[in-house]
C-alpha cells in the first residue's frame, strides 16, 4: 500500500475537494472524520454531478430544469461529507493481495482505502499496485528474499544460502545456524507471493 494516503476531512468544501484531486492527480480520495476514521470516498463522479447541476441551472428553459431534477439530490451537497459515496469499500493491512484485488474488481474501484481495526486510514492501495503484486515474477521474489530476509533480517553472507524460485515455489540450500533455520524458512513462507518453501538447509551449531 501507499502511505500516507491523501484524504479530505468531511467538512472540506466542494471546490477544495476538486482542487485536491486535481493537484494530487487522483480520481478519488477517502473522506475522514476528526479521528481519521474513513467515513466515505469522494470521487470525480461525485463532483461532476454537483458541477453539472451548477452549470445547468444557469441555463434558462425546461431542459435545464429537467436535468436539475434528475441530479437534485447530489447537487445539494456542499462538502465532502455530503457529496461522498458511503459506506466506503476498504481493505485491511492483513488482507492478502488476492483478496484485495477481488474487492477492487468486484467494486469496480481504482483505489481502495486501507484501514486498521478501528477503521482509521493507514494508506491506500491502487489497482495498479495490486496487479503488479499479482504478476510479480520469480526473479523479484528471489531478490526480496535475498535482500530483505537473508541480508536484512538475518545478516547472512551473500553466498551462505542459495535461493531458487520457480513458479512461486522457493528452494533454499546451504548451511545455517540450527537455531535460525526454522524462523528463516517461516519468514520466507510468509512473503505474499511465495506458494511453498522447499527446505534443503543444513543446520550447524
From TrEMBL:
Residues 137-205 form the BON domain. Keywords: CBS domain. The keyword Cell membrane does not apply. Transmembrane segments: none annotated. SUPFAM superfamilies: CBS-domain pair. Residues 1-63, 84-140 form the CBS domain. The keyword rRNA-binding does not apply. Coiled coil: none annotated. It comes from the Bacteria. Signal peptide: none annotated. This is CBS-domain-containing membrane protein. It comes from Streptomyces demainii. The lineage of its organism: Bacteria, Bacillati, Actinomycetota, Actinomycetes, Kitasatosporales.
